[in-house]
Amino acid sequence: MSDAIENLISILDLEQLEDNLFRGRSPQDGWQRVYGGQVIGQALVAASRTVADRHVHSLHGYFMLGGDPKVPIIYEVERIRDGGSFTTRRVVAIQHGKAIFSMSCSFHIEESGLEHQFEMPDIPDPEDLPDVGSFVAQFPDKIPSAIRKYWERERPIEFRPVDLSRYAGNPKKVPYQHIWFRASAPLPDSPEIQRCALAYASDMTLLDTSLIAHGRSVFERDIMVASLDHAMWFHRPFRCDEWLLYVEDSPSTQGARGFNRGLIYTRQGTLVASTAQEGLIRPISREGRKD
C-alpha cells in the first residue's frame, strides 16, 4: 500500500472522543489551508459512525472558514432523526472555537424500485490516456511550476483527464471536462470507506470546471478560488479504488461565483453518484495580491 493511501485511510479514521464527538487530523503537506474534500470526507465518517445498517444517499455541506492544517478538527454530530427508512444527521466541524464547515446528510435502508440513468459519454479508456506525470514531462516549459509540483507529488487519488491541453495554454473552451480517477492503491472493502473516499475525491477538480470558459485554472496566483458549498448524491454501489469517470460541467459563473455539476460513472457505464458545487472565483489585482 502506498504511503499516500495509508495517509488517506489514517485521515479518515477519526478518533472518537464521546458518543457524538470526533477528532480528525490533517496531513502536514505544506498547504496553508485544509483541503475541502478532506473536511467533507471526515464529516461523513463522523456521521456514519453514528448510523447502523443503512448507507448515506445524500449530503449537503457549507464551508464557512478555511481550515487550519496545524491543529485538529473537532466534528460534532447531531442526531436529527432515526426513522423507519431514513436517518438524518447534522455535523459541524470546529477549529479555534469556530465552525468552519457544516453538513447535513441522510442515510437510507436498501430498497428496490424504478430505475433509470443518463448514459455515460463515449470517451477513451483511462489506459489509452497519458498519466499526468507523462504530460508534465512532455510539456515542461508550458506548465506553470505550481501545476508541476502538484502533479508530480504522490497523491492518494490518481487522475487522468481526457483533455490536458488547457493546462498547456489555457485556451477558452466550453466549460465541461471528463476526468478518470481512482484511489492510487486498494482501499478497505467497507462500503462506508469507499463512500467517504469518493466524497474526499469529489471536491478535487469540480470547481476548476467553471474557469474553463475563461481560459483560467485554479493554479493561477491572481485568482482566489475556494469551495463555498458541496452537495453529493450516492446512487449505486461502487469501488473508489477502481476507475471512475467524472463528467463535469459549469452552467454559470456570475458575481465571483462559479456553479458546477458532476456525474460519476464506473467504467462499465453505471452512474454511481452526482455532485453539485458553487465556489468562489474572485480575480485578484496585482496591486492587491499578497505573495
TrEMBL record:
Keyword Hydrolase listed: yes
Keywords: Hydrolase, Lipid metabolism
Database matches in Pfam families: 4HBT_3, Acyl_CoA_thio
BP GO annotations: acyl-CoA metabolic process; fatty acid catabolic process
Protein EC: 3.1.2.20
Domain Acyl-CoA thioesterase-like N-terminal HotDog span(s) in chain numbering: 30-108
Magnesium as UniProt keyword: no
Catalytic activity: a fatty acyl-CoA + H2O = a fatty acid + CoA + H(+)
Listed CDD domains: Thioesterase_II_repeat1, Thioesterase_II_repeat2
GO molecular function: fatty acyl-CoA hydrolase activity
InterPro entries per UniProt: Acyl-CoA_hotdog, Acyl_CoA_thio, HotDog_dom_sf, TesB_ACOT8-like_N, TesB_C
Record-annotated Acyl-CoA thioesterase 2 C-terminal domain positions: 153-280
Record note on quaternary structure: Homotetramer.
Family: Belongs to the C/M/P thioester hydrolase family.
Protein name per the record: Acyl-CoA thioesterase 2
UniProt source species: Microbaculum marinum
Lineage: Bacteria, Pseudomonadati, Pseudomonadota, Alphaproteobacteria, Hyphomicrobiales
Gene: tesB
